[in-house]
Fold this sequence. Notes:
Blueprint: H1 10-13, E1 17-25, E2 28-33, E3 37-42, E4 56-62, E5 65-71, H2 72-75, E6 88-94, E7 97-103, E8 105-113, E9 117-118, E10 134-140, E11 143-148, H3 150-155
Parallel strand pairs: 2-11, 5-7
Antiparallel strand pairs: 1-2, 1-8, 3-6, 4-5, 6-7, 9-10, 10-11
Amino acid sequence: MSKALVPLGAEKTGNELIQLVSFSLDNEEYAVEVLKVREIIRMPDITHMPNTPHYAEGIINLRGKVIPVISLRKKFGLMETEKDNHTRVIVMDISGELTGFIVDAVSEVIRISSAEVQPPPAAMATGGVEQEYITGVINRSERLLILLDLDSLIMA
């Protein structure tokens, strides 16, 4: 199964447009497909659940729907920091279920050409992120954006 962000055959032209939401974690920039993002909210009150993985922060009530919330810092093995005014929860559709992901800050929505997406380096894991969660890398001026596949992150 391919984890490509673009439809099959689009790589032939190299100019298929992809929209991504970029966010930061521990001074690194990551991105996810905008079509999977349902909304971005400020840090809500989280109800902690017993006997859950260490990276599961708990659950929230979002307009009557109970949504699990995952700390990407904890999932990636990064040091925890205090939540501030920039901390956000990105609510995403993961395999048909809504899931929230806590990030340090949401940067922007960007449009890129599929030709800009480079395969991830095979020889290294990036910042504690397992290689199978990374679908590509984008060179944007003087910064690199790491594309994540959060579906496979949850299934792991």
